[in-house]
Amino acid sequence: MAHGYETGRLNLPFVGISTFGKYPYVEDWDAIDADIAVLGAPFDAGTQFRAGARFGPRAIREASTLFSFGHSGAYDHEDDVTYLAAETTRIVDIGDADIVHTDTLKSHANIEAGVRAILAAGALPVVLGGDHSVNIPAVNAFSEEEPIHIVQIDAHLDFVDERHGVRYGHGNPMRRAAEKDYVTGLTQIGIRNVSSTARDGYEAARAMGSDILSVRQFRKLGVEGVLARIPADRRYYVTIDIDGFDPSIAPGTGTPSHGGFTYYEGLELLDGLTKQGSVAGVDLVEVAPDYDPSGSTSTLAAQLLLNFIGRILHNR
């Protein structure tokens, strides 16, 4: 007698269309029926140095097929939990927002429309960047939602108000978020070394409600100590810049900065957030795959997101 896993197609990771995690593709944004909806935001015209994050969503999706578990889910023997089991996991990929070359505001508006469509469907948005400016339209889309506390994993503060008239580049998103009345505060973790933000930016961030921690400060406090600094019982919007991780494991990014996080440091922080509050939205940005021929950066992004999503769904 055939067992369930011996019937139907084997559907190996290298077979088929590269949707995120090989989950169903939904083209009609008015027909989203899921708990989690993934949106690509392949915009990188907000960069101040190396471009290439426009290929991030495609690379993360391809890498995610390695972790496409079919119906069995992902058993974690340390937690004794099967995450992403088919019967408890409703994830869809709604494709990419349309990007209009050189037009930041139009491209951002299209990204915002995608996130609003996900929220209108009652699903949790997971946005694949793109540079960090795509966080601006993603957070804009929460204007009619309950308040959010932003948790940022990043090497850079991204708190520039305006530079040469630019207000919506990848150095501005946390400043734009802090201005929102529905953003109750920010926790900025991993900030280190030579940064794009001057001292007055740090002072402004703290004055506007930011708690800023470097990687070394994070390690001194430990994961539990850091989680204790983040307000509990809140709705968290989590924004992950892949350059928050060390370039030894994530070289494929526009502005790599040594001294970054390891995989488990990031995962344990994210896991803790799912247990002390609720995650309302996620973006992962600045994967620029052409700088990493090994594909390690895209694999890190996909592995982190799938494990994070699994814990969000399990700990709800």
- End-to-end gap: 37 Å
User: How many helices in DSSP terms?
Assistant: 8
Specify the CATH homologous superfamily: Ureohydrolase domain
Helix content: 25-40%
CATH topology: Arginase, Chain A
The overall number of domains is 1
The major sheet is characterized as:
8 strands, parallel
The CATH architecture would be 3-Layer(aba) Sandwich
What's the structural blueprint in terms of helices and strands?
Blueprint: E1 36-41, H1 56-64, E2 74-76, E3 81-83, E4 91-96, H2 104-120, E5 124-129, H3 135-140, E6 148-153, H4 173-178, E7 183-189, H5 199-207, E8 210-213, H6 215-229, E9 235-241, H7 263-276, E10 278-285, H8 296-315
Parallel strand pairs: 1-4, 1-5, 5-10, 6-7, 6-9, 7-8, 9-10
Antiparallel strand pairs: 2-3
Describe this entry's structure for a reader.
The protein contains eight helices and ten strands. It has 316 residues and is α/β, with parallel strands linked by helices. It has a single domain (4-315), classed as Ureohydrolase domain (Arginase, Chain A, 3-Layer(aba) Sandwich), CATH 3.40.800. Strands 4-1-5-10-9-6-7-8 form an eight-stranded parallel sheet, with helices on both faces. It has a two-stranded antiparallel sheet with strand order 2-3. It starts with 35 loop residues before the first strand and ends with a helix.
Quick structural summary:
With 316 residues, the chain is of the alpha/beta class. The protein contains eight helices and ten strands. Helix content is 30%, strand content 18%.
